[in-house]
Structure formats: structure tokens, C-alpha cells
Design a protein that fits this description.
Largest sheet: 2 strands, antiparallel
Structural class: mainly alpha
Number of domains: 1
Number of strands: 4
Strand order of the largest sheet: 1-4
Helix content: 40-55%
Distance between the termini: 39 Å
Number of helices: 8
Shape: globular
Radius of gyration: 17 Å
Length: about 200
């Protein structure tokens, strides 16, 4: 539809992503399967006591699929800010390394995280035809572009999947041209209506 085919190197990296997420190895972990921010309940007092909810997709999966929502906007645009500057990324990684020592390996961790983020973005990209039919200004268009760019940025930050990241950037550029209403700066997602506090 977008006429942005992946090059051979991107296809090779995509095969590596599929293998990484399918052959769990040491990163096999029990997950609720939907670790998005709105599926964590916190006590009203602010106590450090959290509860996961929503277990319909629970099972053993790649441990680095859970922190995707820290880096890439989810369907509800929920975000906790930049996990690197807030320290949340390091906290998550340290906690994960307690049970999975391989998480301390920068290359393995970075590749696994980039693979999970890219995979999520490509799953969301499947909605492109549906969003194309929506009226200009639809927030889902903004979200799809933000998702693609955040996934590519995560891969670049971790020096992983350079050809897939470049391909995803090309797709986002085509979508920005196709949807001029969604050609916006996503550096501060809190300013978009779906992210603003509701009254």
C-alpha cells in the first residue's frame, strides 16, 4: 500500500527479530502478556505496592516484550516519559538481571529490546489501511507515526537493527506525506489530546 518495500538487509534483520522473539532462550519469562501502564494498579497512598491486572494474554514470552511500553506508545498513548532520563530503564534492567543475568550483556539486551519494539511497531502498522480511511485529524494516525519513530529510535539508541530502523523511518516519512495532518513533532506526546488529562 505504501510502496516502501524493505531492502534485503532489512529482511535479513527481520528474520533475526523473529528468531529472537520465538526462540526465547534465557529471556523466557512468565508475563501477563499486556504490561501496559493501564494494567498496573498502584495504591492510592503512593506506597510502592503495585498489582498487575489483565491476564488474558498471559504466558511464557520473551522478557523484553514487557518493557516495550516504556519506549513505544501503546494503544492508549499511555507513557511514563523517557525511561532513560527518568532512570526507569536502568531500574527495569537491574531487576530483570536478578533473574536473567544475560540482561547485563549490553549487546544481547539492546538487540532483544530493539527486536521487541520493532516487532510491536510492525504489528501496529498492520492497521495502516484502516487509519488511511479515517478522517484527517484522527489521533490514531498520529499514534502510528509516533509508534514507528519511537521503535526506530530505540533500535538506534541500542545500536541494533540499523537497516530495519532505516526502513521504519522511511515508512514514517511516507505516512507523514500521505497524512499531512499527522506531520507533527512527537518530542512531547503529552500535548496531544489523547494524552491530556480528562475532566
Amino acid at each position: 500500500m505504501l510502496e516502501v518495500p524493505p531492502g534485503g538487509r532489512a529482511v535479513h534483520e527481520l528474520a533475526a527479530v523473529i528468531t529472537e522473539l520465538a526462540v526465547l532462550g534465557p529471556f523466557s519469562a512468565l508475563s501477563n502478556g499486556d504490561a501496559e501502564a493501564n494494567n498496573v494498579l498502584l495504591h492510592a497512598s503512593g506506597a510502592a505496592d503495585a498489582r498487575l491486572i489483565d491476564f488474558e494474554y498471559a504466558g511464557y514470552t520473551h522478557a523484553l516484550t514487557d518493557p516495550v511500553y516504556l519506549y513505544v506508545p501503546g494503544p492508549a498513548w499511555l507513557t511514563v516519559g523517557d525511561p532513560t532520563t527518568t532512570g526507569l530503564a536502568d531500574q527495569y534492567r537491574r531487576a530483570l538481571a536478578c533473574g536473567i543475568p544475560e540482561a547485563e550483556d549490553d549487546q544481547r539486551y539492546g538487540f532483544g529490546l530493539a527486536a521487541a519494539c520493532v516487532s510491536w511497531a510492525l504489528v501496529r502498522l498492520q492497521r495502516c489501511a484502516l487509519l488511511d480511511a479515517r478522517s484527517p485529524g484522527d489521533h490514531s494516525r498520529l499514534q502510528l507515526i509516533a509508534t514507528l519513530e519511537a521503535a526506530a529510535h530505540t533500535a538506534e539508541t541500542h545500536r541494533a537493527l540499523p537497516h530495519l530502523a532505516a526502513w521504519i523511518h522511511r515508512i514514517a516519512t511516507v505516512l507523514r506525506r500521505r497524512w499531512p495532518d499527522a506531520d507533527q513533532d512527537f518530542s512531547d506526546t503529552a500535548r496531544f489530546p489523547p494524552c491530556q488529562a480528562r475532566q
